[in-house]
Design a protein that fits this description.
Elements lengths: L1 E7 L2 H12 L4 E8 L11 E8 L15 H6 L12 H5 L4 H6 L12 H7 L3 H10 L4 H15 L7 H14 L15 E6 L6 H15 L4 E5 L5 H14 L2 E4 L3 H10 L5 E5 L8 H11 L5 E8 L4 H11 L6 E5 L8 H10 L3 E5 L8 E3 L2 H23 L1
Parallel strand pairs: 4-7, 4-8, 5-6, 5-7, 8-9, 9-10
Antiparallel strand pairs: 1-3, 2-3, 10-11
Length: 393
């Protein structure tokens, strides 16, 4: 692995230098702000970026699917259209530089101490133990090992800190996190939220509506097609009244089309769908019939963070017929273990837009963070091992 240090007036300019000289697959291993050195004629602060690039000792990952169709079927996912294992998904997967360029240099620090990293991860076998211990989906462990093995090799002789950052960044880069919700100039986005009963669709719609309307000044219209739960429509009506937003209800496809057409002056239209079990295929078909063939509509699937991986993959699989455009993970405040988020993100390949962290509207929502998911896995592993060793003593 080749390392190089870059200096620039800003983080953005530094990233451009890294991309220009080392390409989009370079790894950002560290950044720091250098104070002015008046004695050397430097009167302004500089940003120092240390980057690394694989010089070819290890072959790059294949662009062909890493799981065959039968494997993906057992994983309860599509195989062709979605997934980190899909050719197009891998082709467009985040590089380290692109991942960092979308976040500033004040990215949240890792939540475990660097010295512990070498204590628990002495060789690649320890990483396999880690993945199994924290509940990573068995079929992808071998793939993850091959992805991180270059950065754990003694041939690279990385320091503990650089090794830790490289592994964290690599695992984070595999999660398809979307940029914040934006509205094209003179355009409109129509987004329907779907998912199991009790996952928090109605409150999530209210949170997104509040953010886009009050913080970003967008014109927002709300539609409810949940004819099964009168309470849900009343709840959304209450939020709409508080935010002074227009709410329309629709029980048929024609009524939905009419409602959307009436919101032609709105920049964002949010649609609340009926909650259901992922096993209720008839209800899912009803939602699909309501939403399909509506021009430019996006469908985001909501999954609670406390859902078991197998159930989450089943939920994704059963909703694929609707034509999913992205995901939101809800109720992160109810669990500190995010292996389901990691597994579902990698297997589905769907972009993740938001996390919700409580019931409060509008504050309990945040942009999705791949690092938050990955850090939680390491924290879980180290805490479990620490508690185990304490019991032994």
């Amino acid at each position: 692995m080749i390392f190089k240090t870059f200096e620039a007036d800003s983080f953005e300019k530094g990233l451009k230098l890294v991309k220009k000289e080392m390409g989009p697959d370079a790894i950002i291993v560290s950044t720091r702000t250098k104070k002015p050195n008046i004695l050397k004629g430097s009167f302004s602060k500089k940003i120092e970026i240390v980057a690394a690039y694989d010089d070819g000792i290890y072959s790059s990952p294949t662009s062909s699917p890493l799981l065959n169709k039968s494997d993906l079927s057992s994983a309860k996912t599509t195989g062709k259209e979605y997934g980190y294992f899909n050719k197009e998904r891998r082709k467009h997967s985040y590089s380290f530089v692109n991942h960092f360029s979308k976040r500033n240099s004040s990215e949240e620090d890792e939540n475990f101490l660097t010295p512990l990293f070498d204590s628990y991860f002495k060789n690649i076998g320890d990483f396999e133990k880690f993945f199994k211990t924290v509940g990573i989906y068995e079929d992808i462990i071998g793939i993850l090992i091959s992805e991180i093995s270059p950065y754990t090799s003694r041939n690279y002789n990385l320091s503990t800190e650089l090794k830790q950052k490289a592994v964290l960044n690599k695992l984070s880069s595999l999660i398809n996190v979307s940029s914040p919700l934006t509205i094209p100039e003179n355009g409109q986005r129509i987004i329907a939220l779907t998912g199991p009963t009790g996952v928090g669709k109605t409150t999530t719609i209210a949170k997104i509506a509040a953010e886009m309307h009050f913080l970003k000044g967008k014109k927002v219209g709300l539609v409810s097609i949940d004819s099964y739960r009168i309470a849900a429509t009343k709840q959304l009506k209450t939020y709409a009244d508080i935010m002074d937003l227009e709410l329309k209800t629709a029980e048929t496809k024609r009524e939905l089309q009419k409602a959307i057409k009436s919101f032609s002056d709105k920049e964002l239209v949010l649609i609340d769908t009926a909650g259901h079990s992922h096993k209720n295929t008839e209800r899912i078909k009803e939602i699909n019939e309501m939403l399909k063939n509506i021009l430019n509509i996006e469908t985001w699937l909501l999954i609670a963070a406390s859902t078991k991986t197998e159930d989450a993959l089943n939920i994704v699989n059963e909703h694929l017929a609707i034509g999913l455009s992205g995901m939101i993970y809800t109720k992160l405040d109810e669990t500190s273990s995010y292996e389901t988020l990691f597994n579902t993100s990698l297997v589905s390949g769907l972009p993740v837009f938001y996390f919700t962290t409580g019931q409060e509207v509008p504050q309990d929502i945040e942009e999705a963070s791949a690092k938050k998911i990955v850090n939680s896995l390491f924290n879980k592993f180290i805490n479990n091992n620490f508690n185990y060793k304490t019991l032994e003593n």
